[in-house]
Amino acid sequence: MSPDDEERDDAFHPLGEEWQDGLEEALEETEYDSELGMEMARDAMRVTEGDLSEEAFYDRYHEDVVEEFGEDDRPMAEDIEADGADGRLEGTLSRFGLDGESRRDVMKKMGGAGAVGLGAWGTTAGGGGGSEGSPAQESDEHDDGDESGIQWGMALDLEHCDGCLSCVVACAEEHNWEQGANWMYILDFEDDTPGEANNRLIRPCQHCTDAPCEKVCPTTARHTRASDGLVLTDYDVCIGCRYCQVACPYGVNYFQWEEPEVDADELDEDHVYDERGRPVGSRGPRGVMEKCTFCATRQDGSKGEELVGSTACEDACPPEVIQFGNMNNPNSDPQRYIDNTAKSRTLVRTAGDIPSPEDVEESLEGEGEDLDAVVSAVEDLDEETIALLKAIDILSEDGQPESEEDSTLVEQEAAAIELVEILEDHGLDLEDEEVLVELELAEEPGEGEEFAGPSENLAQERLDAFAGATESTFKLLDNIGTDPNVVYLGNEPGPDAEQVPGPVSYEDVGQTNNRKTVLEDGTVKFDGLSL
Fold first, then answer.
1. Which residues sit opposite 289 in a β-bridge?
2. Terminal CA-to-CA distance of the chain, rounded, Å?
3. What SS3 state is found at 360?
4. Which residues lie below 8 Å from residue 365, measured CB to CB, with a gap of 6+?
5. What is the mean pLDDT of each run of 10 residues along the chain (531 residues)?
């Protein structure tokens, strides 16, 4: 066996050899070429890693894709063909000394990526180096360098997720996917990484900026929507080859084996067809691939303008650890949550407890102006709450934050600042040295020193002490170049992480945990790794 053949026998999938073997077995149950699907998936990941250019990837598989599917409508095809694929292919083959050989032989001799070396969504070291041809190009449909448009994404606070599975239930109810599909999935894990407390992972589709699943789709069914960067599946175009399932590094694609439990005539067309008239929402019909869509039809306004910038899972989350919004907007919920996690957590935790402006104004009528009098007069407004509200005010730039339609955190911050203004209008001097020192928001000056006023550092410390500052921020498998649009706050699974039961079982909420119980004829069809 040649070194190239040995390399190609190694596991390339980040979820490990067992997962990869299960995917290959699943491909063999289809009518399509399983070897081609595995090879394309391997090289699609090489493209995102920067080891292989999109042009070389297209050239390498073009003839085989046409032979297998009768067409090659991969998303990069139109632009690459316009540049003259035959000329580039001839040059590439000549450099490798492979003129006149079959394309499959060419692929094997060119070799593939080495093993990633993980059995799970764990921490990885380093990234792909080198290249064949030019470095991987960015998608024409979504330019990662252009921050003027919309790119929907999420910030997920793992440290405050309570594992209630409300998001899983809400996603299933909104999209009608089959048991075991788990477009949204929550798992608990054990890890040997020291210092970790709450080991839990929330796993929707990552809606990668450079999605390998899109690169292997021969029909344009799997595609990135130009208007907002969502990675979607056109059910009318999908042929069920399942190549996208193999090429996804995160294990979030599902095949609809049987006729769906919810009939097509029970589905709202406005929840199936997006603004372009393509069927990309709700559960897929028999024989196609499906996955989390980030509630694409909500983002189009089909379910009401008030739901634009929201998802079903976010709406259902009791601790509000799912923050969805435009990742290109620094004022959106996810970016604000990432920028100052303690402040955002404080806003979320206090939003339902602080009194309304009307109640505060009414309670303060005729009452004293000092701190003790205000605390005594207003129910649900103790000294700590006032300190937190003032800390938020201190850390807010230029007073009231800029209003955004899709930003709940902006609204919550504006409400906090409004209460501070009401207290100050009543006469409570929240710039006074004695009051600020009592609230631990200013340093008491030493003898002969001038009072420095409110301290941003102390304000931040007050919020950190109340809500906690996150230990880490990460993206899953960020080193492989997919540029996922989901950012995690909290504990990242290590390479040896193993799944354990969570506080709420899937059975308790009427769902199926597809990592522990795989249906005989369900949507996954094989036992993958538990994490």
1. 255
2. 33
3. helix
4. none
5. 47 89 91 96 96 94 95 84 55 44 42 29 38 38 54 97 97 94 92 69 96 96 96 97 96 92 94 96 95 97 93 97 95 95 96 93 94 94 96 82 71 94 96 96 92 96 95 91 96 84 94 57 36 42
CB distance 477 to 121 below 8 Å: yes
What DSSP character marks residue 233?
E
Asked if 247 contacts 215 with a C-beta cutoff of 8 angstroms, the reply is: yes
120 vs 335: CA distance, rounded Å: 27
Q: What pLDDT, on the 0 to 100 scale, is given for residue 197?
A: 59
Place of tokens 């067309």: 269
Asked whether 498 and 483 are in contact (CB, 8 A), the reply is no
pLDDT score for 195: 56
Return the pLDDT at 336: 94
Q: Could you give the CA distance from residue 279 to residue 297 in angstroms, rounded to a whole number? A: 10
User: How many residues in total does the chain contain?
Assistant: 531
Distance of CA 278 to the CA centre of its chain: 23
Q: Are the C-beta atoms of 76 and 54 separated by less than 8 Å?
A: yes
Cα dihedral 501/502/508/509 (nearest 10):
-130
Cβ–Cβ < 8 Å for 68, 218? yes
For 407-438, letters b (16+ CB in 10 Å) and e give: bbbbbbbbbbbbbbebbeebebebeebebbee
Do the Cβ atoms of 249 and 120 come closer than 8 Å? no
- Going from N- to C-terminal start, the domains of the chain cover 3-110, 335-467
- Alpha-carbon gap, residue 483 to 209, rounded angstroms: 5
Q: CA 124, CA 400: separation in Å to the nearest integer?
A: 41
3-state helix vs strand vs coil in the chain, percent to 5: 40, 10, 55
SS3 190: strand
CA separation for the pair 361, 380 (Å, rounded): 13
Q: Which residue shows structure tokens 């379910």?
A: 303
Residue with tokens 């085989």: 64
In whole angstroms, give the CA distance from residue 179 to residue 172: 8
Spell out where 263-315 has E strands: 289-290
The rounded Cα 211 to chain-centroid distance in angstroms is 13
Residues 6+ apart with CB under 8 A from 66: 72
**Cα 388 to Cα 203: distance, rounded to the nearest angstrom:** 32
DSSP letter for each residue of 459-524: HHHHHHHHH---S-EE-TTGGGS---SEEEESPPP-TT-EEE--SS-TGGGT---TTT---TTSSS
How is residue 208 written in tokens?
Answer: 């990668």
Q: Supply the pTM of this predicted model.
A: 0.84
Judge contact between 371 and 435, C-beta under 8 A. Answer: yes
Does residue 74 sit in helix, strand or coil? coil
d(CA 284, CA 423): 54
